[in-house]
């Protein structure tokens, strides 16, 4: 694939996954202090499809929210959201996208799952650290409220993202190394 087509594809993917992240924030279960959303599902699918470039849609999503576009949970927006209890999780999307994306650049299932696990751990670390600081909660209490209830759902979303990404990469038009290009039949 020539560089212009690849660049155009990355731009389109960035826009699409930014929109998926925003939509995922609206599909939620209210929970205190952090809502349960589908954003991690779309974050991991972005990592699986875009590799390390999944940082781009996450960054665009965060900038849109900071610029008062109502893309965060429940239509919230602005810098104030970053200062609230969910701010660390939002910023944790960046390393999570990078680590999961790097993991998906490999063909090994173990490395792919390891990348998602590392991404999820980095997301939790950023989120819990900020939740503890911003809410005045002790670190163990922030861990109990900000991680434990999310583990089963995040494992399920990770497995679903892995299956969806495998399906996408198995489609015609994707090469064996996961880059857009020639499909399994040699067509391009």
Give a description of the structure:
The chain has a single domain, classed as Orthogonal Bundle (Arp2/3 complex 21 kDa subunit ARPC3). The chain is mostly helical. Helix 1 packs antiparallel against helix 2 and helix 3 runs antiparallel to helix 5. It is built from 8 helices and 2 strands, in the order H-E-E-H-H-H-H-H-H-H.
Secondary structure layout plus pairing:
Blueprint: H1 3-26, E1 28-29, E2 36-37, H2 39-50, H3 55-66, H4 79-83, H5 87-104, H6 109-135, H7 139-146, H8 151-169
Helix pairs in contact: 1-2, 1-3, 2-5, 2-8, 3-5, 5-6, 6-7
The fraction of residues in strands falls at under 5%
The first-level CATH class name? Mainly Alpha
| Mean of residue pLDDT values | 89
Distance between the termini: 8 Å
Number-wise, the strands total 2
The tally of structural domains comes to: 1
- Give me the side-by-side strand order of the main sheet: 1-2
Number of helices: 8
Helix and strand composition category: mainly alpha
Helix content: 55-70%
Determine the CATH topology.
Arp2/3 complex 21 kDa subunit ARPC3
How would you sum up the major sheet?
Answer: 2 strands, antiparallel
Task: Give the radius of gyration.
Answer: 17 Å
Question: Which key features would you list for this structure?
Answer:
188 residues; mainly alpha; Arp2/3 complex 21 kDa subunit ARPC3; two-stranded antiparallel ribbon; 8 helices; globular; disordered C terminus
């Amino acid at each position: 694939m020539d560089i212009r087509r690849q660049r155009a594809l990355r731009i389109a993917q960035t826009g699409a996954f930014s929109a998926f992240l925003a939509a995922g924030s609206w599909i939620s279960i209210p929970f205190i202090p952090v809502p349960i959303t589908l954003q991690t599902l779309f974050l991991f699918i972005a990592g699986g499809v875009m590799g390390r470039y999944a940082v781009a849609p996450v960054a665009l999503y965060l900038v849109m929210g900071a610029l008062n576009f109502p893309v965060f949970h429940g239509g919230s927006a602005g810098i104030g959201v970053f200062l609230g209890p969910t701010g660390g999780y939002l910023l944790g999307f960046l390393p999570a996208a990078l680590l999961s994306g790097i993991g998906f650049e490999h063909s090994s299932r173990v490395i792919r799952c390891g990348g998602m696990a590392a991404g999820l751990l980095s997301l939790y670390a950023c989120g819990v650290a900020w939740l503890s600081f911003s809410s005045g909660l002790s670190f163990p209490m922030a861990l109990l409220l900000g991680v434990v209830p999310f583990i089963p759902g995040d494992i399920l979303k990770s497995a679903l993202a892995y299956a969806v990404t495998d399906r996408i990469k198995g489609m015609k038009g994707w090469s064996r190394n996961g880059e857009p290009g020639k499909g399994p039949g040699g067509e391009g």
